[in-house]
Amino acid sequence: VAVLSLATGTSLADGCGTSDSSGDFTCLVPQNFTGTLYFSKNGHAFPNTQISTPVTNDNLVLSVQEPVLRQLAITVSSGGASPVPMSGVTVCRYDSAAKSAALGCGATDSNGQLTYGVPENFSGVLAFYKTGWLFADKNYSQTPVTANATVSVAARDVPRVTGSVSSNGSPVQGARVDWSPNFSASNFSSLISCTDSDSSGAYACAVDAAQIPAPANNQTPKLKINPVLGGYLFTPVDLTAASFSGGSVSNLNFTADPTAKVLSGQLQALLGGSLTYGSISFTADGSRSLEKCENTTSTGQFACAVPNGFTGKLLIDVSASQAGYAFPDQIFSNVAA
User: Fold this and answer.
1) Using alpha carbons only, how large is the chain's radius of gyration in Å?
2) What is the mean pLDDT of residues 123-151?
3) Span 325-331, mean pLDDT?
C-alpha cells in the first residue's frame, strides 16, 4: 500500500512510504508535520488519516483499517452515435472535487470495464483520463455510495482536432502535441487532451470548444496548438471559436522546419550529477511568445530546435522537486549552424 502525505497549506501530495508484506509501514515526514496521510492501492479504499498535532518525534503509531467496500462495475465507452468500449482509461478516486491527491487508480480492460472498490458512503469524485479524450467527473457529493452499483461513462461529445506530424516527408513519432490558451478557462484540464503522434505521425485532440470565448473588445481568444519534440521545430497554429463553427477540425498537419538549427546541451548540478526534470523554452528578441522545446532526458540532456538565424534567449526551468537550482537565460545571436 502506497502512503502519501499532504502537508497543511499545500496542494501536492508526496510519497512517504510503502507497507511491507506484514502491512507495516514507515512514513517519513518533515519535523512538525501536520496534514493528511492517504493510503492507496488498486482495488482497495482506505480512510484518510488527519494529523493535526505537529509530529515532533518518530513515536507516532497509526493503525489503519480498510472500511467496508462497495463495488462499482464501471463501463467506459467512446460515446456518440456508435459507442465502442474504451480500454486503458484510468479511473482515479478523490475525496473532493478539488482532486488534490488520488486515493487509488485503476484502468479499464479491453472491454472497457473495471470493477472498482470504494468505501461505503463514499462522497467524493471519480475522474477518468485517457489522452485524446475528455470525460466528465462522476461526483458523489450529493448521492454517497451505499451499495454496489453499475456505472456507465461515455467520453464527452466535443469537437476533435486531427492531423499529422512530419519532417522531410516522413512521419514523426512521439511528438507531444502541446497547447496554450491566451484566455482564462474555467478548468484547463477539461479544455483539451491530445495524444502524442503515433508511428504514422497521426495525432488526435479532444477540445471543449465551448470554453473558447468569442472575440470581444478587439481581442480574439486563441488556443495555440504546437507539436513538441527535441530537435524539431514546428510552426504553431492558433484555433479560435470560429475554427470550430463547423464542428471538428481535420487535416491540421504540421511539418518540421527543414532550416531549423538545434541547440543541445545537458543540465548539471553544481556538485555533479544531472537534473532530469528541466523544461526548455525559447523566445526570440522582440517577441512576447514563449515556445516550448522539450523536457530534458533522464540524463539531463536536451535538444532545442530554433529558427535559422535565431536571436534571443533559451530559458531553462527545473521542477519544484529540484528547488534550489536555477539557470541563467542563455543568450544567442544569429544562430546559423
Assistant:
1) 23
2) 94
3) 78
Sort strands 176-181 and 192-194 into parallel, antiparallel or unpaired. unpaired
Q: Take residue 310 and report the three cell numbers written for it.
A: 535565431
Q: CA–CA separation, 164 vs 256, rounded Å?
A: 11
Query: Average pLDDT for residues 210-239, to the nearest whole number?
Result: 90
- Model pLDDT, residue 164: 97
Q: Is 14 exposed, middle or buried (0-12, 13-18, 19+ CB in 10 A)?
A: middle
pTM of the predicted structure, to 2 decimals: 0.73
pLDDT of 131 reads 95
Asked if residue 74 lies in contact with residue 153, where contact means CB atoms within 8 angstroms, the answer is yes
Separation of alpha carbons 175 and 195, rounded Å: 9
Measured CA to CA, the distance from residue 278 to residue 332 in angstroms comes to 19
Grid coordinates in use for 303? 535538444
Query: Count of CB atoms within 10 A of residue 168's CB?
Result: 8
Residue 132: all three cell numbers together: 485524446
Which amino acid would we find at residue 241? A
3-state secondary structure of 98: coil
Task: Supply the DSSP symbol for 28.
Answer: -
Within 176-277, strands assigned E span 176-181, 192-194, 202-207, 223-228, 237-239, 254-255, 261-266
Q: For residue 314, which of 292, 287, 337 has the smallest C-alpha distance?
A: 292
The Cα angle at residue 321 between residues 30 and 62, in degrees rounded to 5:
30
